[in-house]
Every structure is written in C-alpha cells, then in structure tokens.
From TrEMBL:
UniProt keywords, alphabetically: Signal
Source species: Pseudomonas indica
Keyword Signal included in the entry's annotation: yes
Name of this protein: DUF3142 domain-containing protein
Signal sequence coordinates: 1-28
Length: 245
C-alpha cells in the first residue's frame, strides 16, 4: 500500500471513530414497558403496563360540528374510559376537537368532568386539547387556547398536541404567542397508528418552538431516539399512544 493510500485509509478510520454512534437499533419498535406516560383512548383495552404509569392522558370527549344547515350544531360526545379507581398517576383529561367554535355547554361539560375526576380522588393536573391545527391557522388556534386558559381554574395546566411540521413551517409569531398560554406541547411522530416515515427530518427543529415539549410515540411504531433530543432544555420526555394488539 502506497503512502497516499495509507494516509487516506487513516483519515477514513479517524472519521469513523469520531462520528456519533446512533442510539439504539434503527427503526426499533416502541415497547410501552420502556415508558411511564401514556395516552388511553376510546376503544383501547387497559394493559398491564398502566400499573407503572406516572402520567396518563385519558380521552373524555370529542367536540364536532354537525353540518345540517348554514349554522352547524356543535356537539360534545362523551368518550373514553369511565372514572376508574384512584391511582398514583397524574391525570390529564384529553379532548379531541374537530372544531374550535365551542358553545358554552361544551365548556360547562369539560369543567364538570374535571370536578368529577377531582372529587373521585384522582390527581388531575390539567386538560389536553388534541386538535390538528394546520400551520396556516395557528393564529386562530392561539385565540381559542387563550380563551380556554381563562376559563380553566388556575390550578389546572393546559397541554396541546402538536404536528411535526410546526417546527419547520409554522409562523414563529404564532408559536411565540403560545408562551404563557400552554404548559406543554406533545409533538406527535405518528399519524393514525403508524409512525410518520420522515419524522427524523423534523426532530432537530422541534426545540426551536421554544416551548416545553414531549415526544408522542405510537405503541409498536418505529422510533430511534437521537442523542441531541435529551440535551434540549425544553425536552420533557415521551408519551406513548397505547393500541390494541
């Protein structure tokens, strides 16, 4: 081997040694037993892993607009699990919203459910809104969340789910207006029951939201944790969406 070839080989070896090694196997399946925060949605049977839960996001209702006339009727459909026996877990009551135009009866129902869970002995810490806010309509969503924040008793926190593309395409002004309104954003890396194919392309920019965030995973979906994620001062952990086997 000539001097040039030996020098080139040495450079390649040094580059390989200096490169960061990936954390975990590529496209590893999400095992719920490795986590302690979970979404429990309608129709999903309880699993033994719930015994180790420190945080639960439990679906309690869906808010939809029924378009039967020029003036859609907004309905609150109670969904999710009934109030179980108290546990040591922190509980967030989660609501799936398909419209942001909530009439008074929707707010009244939500507040009544909070009080019932609290009276039953649960550690209810807040409300989570699951709404697919497209980047072009974030300003409208911010206005809705400000109003909801004013209606919630001060002891409850406010959580929202977020789309991966917020980190790349959302108006920074709209994102900035969420500060002081929401306490956390849980960024979903899945759609339906499947992991978004190019989720890794968005993750480096999630910290730019400047908001406390968690990463939402789907049980048995694909996930490869990047090393830089845990170094973000805004990162608060993971939430796993449980699914039936």
């Amino acid at each position: 081997m000539g001097r040039l070839a030996r020098t080139l080989a040495a450079c390649i070896l040094l580059a390989l040694l200096a490169a960061p090694w990936p954390s975990g196997p590529a496209n590893a399946a999400v095992e719920a037993s490795d986590y302690d925060a979970f979404w429990l949605w309608s129709g999903v049977r309880p699993q033994p892993v719930l015994a180790q839960a420190r945080t639960l996001y439990i679906l309690q209702g869906q808010i939809s607009a029924i378009r039967r006339s020029a003036h859609p009727e907004v309905r609150f459909a109670a969904q999710g699990v009934a109030i179980p026996k108290p546990s040591r877990s922190e509980v967030w009551l989660a609501y799936r919203a398909h419209t942001l135009r909530w009439p008074p009866h929707v707010h009244d129902t939500l507040l009544a459910q909070l009080r019932r869970w609290q009276r039953a002995g649960h550690r209810v810490v807040g409300v989570q809104i699951d709404f697919d806010a497209r980047t072009l309509h974030l300003h409208e969503y911010v206005d809705f969340l400000r109003d909801l924040r004013r209606r919630l008793p001060v002891e409850y926190r406010l959580s929202i789910t977020g789309l991966l593309d917020w980190s790349s395409n959302a108006d920074p002004t709209a994102i900035g207006q969420l500060k002081g309104v929401v306490d956390e954003v849980v960024v979903q890396t899945y759609q339906g029951l499947s992991t978004i194919t190019d989720y890794q392309a968005y993750l480096p920019r999630v910290s730019r939201l400047g908001l406390p965030f968690k990463i939402g995973l789907v049980q048995q979906g694909e996930w490869r944790a990047p090393d830089y994620l845990v170094r973000s001062p805004w990162f608060r952990g993971y939430v796993v969406f449980l699914r039936n086997p």
